[in-house]
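Lecture notes, continued. The same structure-token format from the folding unit now serves as the input rather than the output. Read the line below as a description of shape only.
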């Protein structure tokens, strides 16, 4: 990996934070010393089930998914993560327990990795960071709760429309069976729903 690419990737993270809070040049420099740049090839894993997740990853470019296998070997997609989003395995990260989810790149992806120990240190040394992180975690939790509610109460059509709003270009990037898995419906049902809305345009 070239230094130019490393610099570009951290610049994307710095821009993300600077858009939300006022960081000093010294704070940005401190943050950079605790970040590691990483490029994943398509289908490469960032985390596999059974490993302990000791990091958070910021997506500079690309697309990843978090998924889990049931006892029958069927995949259940928990989330897709695209540019300017964060990904980790929350339970494994918080408790130091083996991950139950896999995190895999669906296309070549550029990431900035922050180890848990480094992240905790940054929270101590950059005062504005903790309120932002608390807000982001709260937003993530609320989004998860809304998704659970929609899975329980919404029709396939409503789930599809909510998904398209959240991930407007995802169908050009992700296999259909993964989207169906995320939405909790069969591929056939998803195909029918998409066709219905395509005809209505």
């Amino acid at each position: 990996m070239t230094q130019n690419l490393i610099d570009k990737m951290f610049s994307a993270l710095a821009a993300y934070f600077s858009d939300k809070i006022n960081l000093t040049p010294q704070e940005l420099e401190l943050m950079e010393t605790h970040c590691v740049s990483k490029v994943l090839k398509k289908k490469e894993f960032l985390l596999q089930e059974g490993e302990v997740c000791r990091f958070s990853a910021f997506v500079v470019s690309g697309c990843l998914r978090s998924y889990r296998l049931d006892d029958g070997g069927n995949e259940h997609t928990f989330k897709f993560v695209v540019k300017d989003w964060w990904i980790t395995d929350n339970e494994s990260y918080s408790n130091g327990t083996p991950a139950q989810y896999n995190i895999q790149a669906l296309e070549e992806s550029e990431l900035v990795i922050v180890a848990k120990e480094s992240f905790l240190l940054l929270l101590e040394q950059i005062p504005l960071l903790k309120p932002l992180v608390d807000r982001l975690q709260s937003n993530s939790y609320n989004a998860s709760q809304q998704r659970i509610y929609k899975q329980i109460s919404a029709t396939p059509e409503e789930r599809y429309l909510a998904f398209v709003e959240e991930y407007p270009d995802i169908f050009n990037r992700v296999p259909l069976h993964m989207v169906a898995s995320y939405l909790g419906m069969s591929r056939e049902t998803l195909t029918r729903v998409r066709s219905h809305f395509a005809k209505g345009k």
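Point for the exam: The longest strand covers residues 55-61.
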